[in-house]
Design a protein that fits this description.
By secondary structure, this protein is an all-alpha fold. The chain is elongated, with a radius of gyration of 14 Å. It has helices at 3-25, 30-56, 65-88. The termini are far apart. The chain has 3 helices and no strands.
Length: 89
């Protein structure tokens, strides 16, 4: 698969993780919805590409493992955002 397809999959995973995180938290506040989407998207792209390439040296375009890391990165960044949100309030 080409890098464009993986990028689209990373974006989909990140957005899905952000929507699920917002749904689970039941905050109901629109600004936090956008924060969740941004954190999920950023975590998926950062871990999907950079972590896979830098830490594991795997060719990203040939690895479905990067999709798993994209999901894990999105969840980790969302958890970090939740912790910071609780500290700030």
């Amino acid at each position: 698969m080409s890098i464009v397809i993986y990028l689209a999959l990373w974006v989909a995973i990140g957005l899905l993780a952000g929507v699920i995180a917002n749904w689970i938290s039941e905050t109901g506040v629109w600004p936090w919805f956008w924060v969740d989407l941004f954190c999920g998207l950023s975590g998926a792209i950062i871990s999907g590409y950079f972590v896979t390439k830098a830490l594991f040296g795997i060719s990203v375009v040939l690895s479905a493992f990067s999709l798993i890391l994209a999901g894990a990165g999105a969840v980790l960044l969302l958890l970090l955002a939740r912790v910071l949100r609780r500290i700030m309030s």
